[in-house]
Structure formats: C-alpha cells, structure tokens
C-alpha cells in the first residue's frame, strides 16, 4: 500500500507539473499571437489621418471603398479556390475509396434491448405505451403431423448411408430391386 501511495503521489505531482507547463505555454502562445497581430496591423493598416476639408474626406472615402472592393474580390477568389480544392479532394477520396474495393463494415456488437427500452431511448420522456409483445401472443399447441412421424421413424440418415456404401450396399440395393 505504501508503494501504491507513493506512485499515486508521484503521478499527481507529475500531472500538476504538466498542467503548470501547459498553462505557461498557452500564455506564451497568446502573447506571441498578440504581438504578431500588432505587427501585421502596423504593417498593413497605417494610422488613419482625417483631413479637415470635405473634398479630402470624400477622396479618402473613395480610396477606402476601392480598397474594400479589392479585398472583397480577393476574399471571393480565395473562397472559390478553397471550394474547388475541397471538391477535388472529395473526388480523389472517392476514387481512392473505389480503388480499394469493397467497404469493410465494422463489426457490430449485439445489444439485447427490449422494445420498451428502445422506444424509451428513441423517444425519451414521450414514451408511455408499454409494448410487451409476448403478452399479446396466443398459446398454440403443436400437433404431430404424419410427416413429422415419418421423419422420426426414418431415424438417423448416417446409418442408411453407411449401409449402402461399398460393394455390400450395392448388392443389397440390387437384391432389393429384384
């Protein structure tokens, strides 16, 4: 038990150390992303200087609208390229799938579940009807028919085969035929 406690304590210590490392790594990543974002914005988005006159403001708005249009066109083009490549990937995956041959179905596990349990799982709280299917069945007595009696009288088929095998069996069949 002492060894088990020591192993458990060590495991807990290692787990907490790993969690601390993960927290510091996540903090470093978020800081790096923030710095990268600031650098990108400084590079691609110069600070906005608003001119004083109305005409200069209108020119600035026209420039910004032109820039927005060009960025929108680029975004649309990249979306179309992405859709095209995704479609190609799906087609290639389908071809690979077809070349491999038949789809291997996973082995399904047999689950014993009553009709009530199945309806309860599917419908949830809405299910209130009891479906005991066996309760509604009628008891039927099996009658012995002549065919079944004949089959029982014949006996084991292996005995007949053994008797008719070989030369003796053929001789018996020949004698029976006369």
List keywords for this structure.
mainly alpha, 6 helices
Describe this structure in words.
With 178 residues, the protein is mainly alpha-helical. Helix content is 72%, strand content 0%. Among the domains are: 47 residues; 55 residues. It has six helices and no strands. The longest helix is centred in the middle third of the chain and has 47 residues. The protein starts with a helix and ends with a helix. Keywords: Acetylation, Actin-binding, Coiled coil, Muscle protein.
Concise structural overview:
The chain has 178 residues and is mainly alpha-helical.
Summarize the helices and strands and which ones pair or pack:
Layout lengths: L1 H43 L9 H47 L14 H9 L22 H9 L2 H8 L1 H12 L1
- Biggest beta sheet attributes: none
Write the H/E string, N to C.
HHHHHH
* Uncertain parts: none
Q: What overall form do the CA principal axes indicate?
A: elongated
Any idea what the radius of gyration is? 41 Å
Helix content: over 70%
Tally of DSSP helical segments: 6
Whole-number mean pLDDT: 79
Beta content comes to: under 5%
Organism: Oreotrochilus melanogaster
Coiled coil: 54-102
Pfam families: Troponin
Family: Belongs to the troponin I family.
């Amino acid at each position: 038990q002492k060894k088990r406690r020591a192993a458990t304590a060590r495991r807990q210590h290692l787990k907490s150390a790993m969690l601390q490392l993960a927290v510091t790594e996540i903090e470093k990543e978020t800081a790096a992303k923030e710095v990268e974002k600031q650098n990108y914005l400084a590079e691609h988005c110069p600070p906005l200087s608003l001119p004083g006159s109305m005409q200069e403001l209108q020119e600035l708005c026209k420039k910004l609208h032109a820039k927005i249009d060009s960025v929108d066109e680029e975004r649309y083009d990249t979306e179309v390229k992405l859709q095209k490549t995704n479609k190609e990937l799906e087609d290639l995956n389908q071809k690979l799938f077809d070349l491999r041959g038949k789809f291997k179905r996973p082995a399904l596990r047999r689950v014993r579940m009553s009709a009530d349990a199945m309806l309860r799982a599917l419908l949830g709280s809405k299910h209130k009807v009891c479906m005991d299917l066996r309760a509604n069945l009628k008891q039927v007595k099996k009658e012995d028919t002549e065919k079944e009696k004949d089959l029982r009288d014949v006996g084991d088929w292996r005995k007949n085969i053994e008797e008719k095998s070989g030369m003796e069996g053929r001789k018996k069949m020949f004698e029976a035929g006369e």
